[in-house]
Amino acid sequence: MAFFLQICERMEKIIITIDGWSSCGKSTLAKQLARELHYVYIDSGAMYRAITLYFLRNHIDWTNEEAVAHALEAIKLVFMTNHKNGQTEMYLNGENVEYVIRDLVIAEKVSEVAAIKAVRAFAVARQQEMGSRKGIVMDGRDIGTTVFPSAELKIFMTADEDVRVKRRFRELYEKNPNITLEEVKHNLSMRDYIDSHREISPLRKADDAIVLDNSHLTMPQQLDIAKKWVSERMK
Ligand code: DC
Fold first, then answer.
1. Does the Cβ of 52 fall within 6 Å of ligand 1?
2. How many angstroms does the Cα of residue 44 sit away from the middle of ligand 1?
3. Is the CB of 106 under 6 A from ligand 1?
4. Is the minimum distance from the CB of 114 to ligand 1 under 6 angstroms?
5. Ligand 1 pocket, 20 CB below 6 A?
6. What is the pLDDT of residues 98-154, one digit of tens each?
7. Angle, nearest 10°, between helix axes 2-10 and 219-234?
8. Which end of the chain has fewer CB atoms at under 10 Å, N or C?
9. 143 lines ligand 1 (CB under 6 A)
């Protein structure tokens, strides 16, 4: 690892994008890469989740363009590092919402909110600002296609649906033992459908992205593959 970091630190910083289906381990890989490279990690999905939380809490009718525009003016999203665990956490108007935005109540509505034109313009502008100095790993659905179309390394992650459902179920079950595998499966397929069929920036693989199918890979194995791609892009 030290050798990999030494090599990377001598090179110009790059932008790494990780897009893909829900729950295929994008954020795990993105965090690991960012840690090894001493890059910033940005979870773009957390922004859409925080906006959804704001809309739900404030009873915003998101089918009404004016109401959405007005609500967005009142939203301030900031990522801050938690120095206890080194993780970046999402703050909505000064409140740490990192935990609450992972709830299934948010997951049920977030794809609908993320399909709204004004919401996407709002989030994308902030994401582009964050990447203006490079040295960033950002995961999401449209990062390699819309947010950073000239990124040096684009990864498109995928995994078998069964594998993804089980992974997500294990995560959610820790917080809510009443949750069922069926509920999780329904939520994942619904989000994947909406995310890949929406009009603006639908989820799709960028033409120059490399596919990483991790259905049968361990985390160290997928990290090794991604690090090899990083080294190649930095040469
Ligand atoms: O990565 P995630 O599951 O936390 O993302 C939550 C939702 O946000 C996802 O269903 C689609 C949307 N999203 C998006 O439209 N564009 C992104 N760049 C990231 C997430």
1. no
2. 7
3. no
4. yes
5. no
6. 999 998 899 999 999 999 999 999 999 999 999 999 999 999 999 999 999 999 999
7. 30
8. C
9. yes
Tell me the chain's radius of gyration from C-alpha atoms: 17
How would you list the strands of the sheet with 40-43, edge to edge? 40-43, 136-140, 15-20, 153-158, 210-213
Residue 27 and residue 219 in contact, taking contact as beta carbons nearer than 8 Å: no
The rounded distance, in Å, linking the Cα atoms of 150 and 147 is: 9
Residues 8-65 have pLDDT tens digits of 777 789 999 999 999 999 999 999 999 999 999 999 999 999 999 999 999 999 999 9
Query: Which protein residue has the closest C-alpha to ligand 1 atom 6?
Result: 45
Under a CB-based contact definition with an 8 Å cutoff, are residues 229 and 153 in contact? yes
Structure tokens at 213: 């199918």
Other CB atoms within 10 A of residue 76 CB: 12
Residues 144, 207: Cα–Cα separation, whole Å? 9
SS3 93: coil
Entry pTM: 0.93
Q: How far apart are CA 96 and CA 94, in angstroms?
A: 7
Cα separation, 108 vs 114, in Å, equals: 12
Domains in the chain with CATH codes: 15-216 (3.40.50.300)
| Residues 6 or more apart whose Cβ sits within 8 Å of residue 171 | none
Q: Ligand 1 center to residue 45 CA distance, Å?
A: 4
